[in-house]
Structure formats: structure tokens, C-alpha cells
Write a structure and sequence with these properties.
The chain is α+β, with helices and mostly antiparallel strands. It is 40% helix and 31% strand. Strands 1, 2, 3, 4, 5, 6, 7 and 8 form an eight-stranded antiparallel sheet that branches. A hairpin with a 5-residue loop joins strand 4 and strand 5. Helix 1 runs antiparallel to helix 2. The radius of gyration is 21 Å and the shape is elongated. The termini are close together.
Length: 157
């Protein structure tokens, strides 16, 4: 089983690598021009720094989500969830390559026997994925049932 990637992680990594590419172009041009910066080179450097700065909130939020999942795996209670549906985001908002951005609605039965409906965060999924090819595990905080994390994995077909 392979864990689904978070949209936050993919977007943050993409922005970071775009910024690194601009800074690499700046470094090569700086060396080729005998260490004499020009206005164009300074613009390229600024664009690279801006892309890296824009990637920071995405990367920090992705780190927050992964730490929350680790904490709930360690301290919380886990339940197998039944996936009800995959809800894609409208295509005009976010599209990364041929992947779709969607979240998963699922439900699980708590220790008290109560069935709870929850939804995951936005995930990157390949277009051919369906409910039958995914499995979900819900990790719930023992003291606060509203603090949860869902780990969605693809099943081998």
C-alpha cells in the first residue's frame, strides 16, 4: 500500500524547486559574468527568493499535518474507515500535472458504537482512482474525538 500525498506537500515542494532553479541560474550567470551582477541577474535572484519564501507556508503546514498524524498514531486510537466517496475539487482551482486534487468522505464506528462521518484533507490522486482502490485508517485523539487524522492508502490491484 502506498500513502497518498498531501496537496500542501506537493505544492510546497514544487515552489521550492522553482526557486532553487532560479537561484541556480543566477549563480551560473554570476560566475560567467566574472562576479559582476547586472539588473537582470538581480531580478532572477529576487524571483528565486520570492518562490522559496512562498513555499515556506506550504511546507510548514505540511510538516504540521505530518507531526499531527505521527502524534495521533502514537497516542490516539485507530479505526478502519469505510470510504463513502471521493469528492474532487473543481478543475479550475488546483491542477498539478495530470493528478486531481480531492478529499475523501468516510465513516467509522467509534468505541461507543457511534458511526461518525468525517472527511480527509485534500490529497493528490491519479485520475483513475476509485473508492474500491483506496483504504483509510482514522487516528483519533483519546480525549478529544474531534481531533483526528486520516491516512489514505492505495491498495494494490
Amino acid at each position: 500500500m502506498k500513502k497518498m500525498k498531501s496537496t500542501w506537500r506537493a505544492a510546497g515542494a514544487s515552489m521550492f524547486f522553482i526557486g532553487i532553479a532560479f537561484l541556480s541560474v543566477y549563480a551560473i550567470a554570476f560566475i560567467v559574468n566574472d562576479f559582476a551582477p547586472s539588473d537582470t541577474m538581480l531580478t532572477i535572484r529576487t524571483i528565486g527568493v520570492v518562490w522559496i519564501a512562498l513555499s515556506l507556508p506550504f511546507n510548514l503546514y505540511s510538516m504540521y499535518l505530518s507531526k499531527k498524524l505521527r502524534r495521533l498514531k502514537r497516542d490516539g486510537v485507530s479505526f478502519d474507515a469505510k470510504i463513502l466517496e471521493i469528492v474532487p475539487m473543481p478543475r479550475n482551482i488546483v491542477q498539478i500535472s495530470n493528478y486531481i486534487t480531492a478529499y475523501v468522505r468516510c465513516n467509522y464506528e467509534s468505541e461507543e458504537g457511534e458511526v461518525r462521518n468525517i472527511k480527509s484533507r485534500y490529497l493528490l490522486m491519479s485520475p483513475g482512482v476509485n473508492e474500491n482502490s483506496l483504504s483509510a485508517t482514522v487516528y483519533v485523539d483519546f480525549y478529544n474525538p474531534y481531533d483526528y487524522a486520516i491516512e489514505v492508502k492505495t491498495c494494490k490491484s
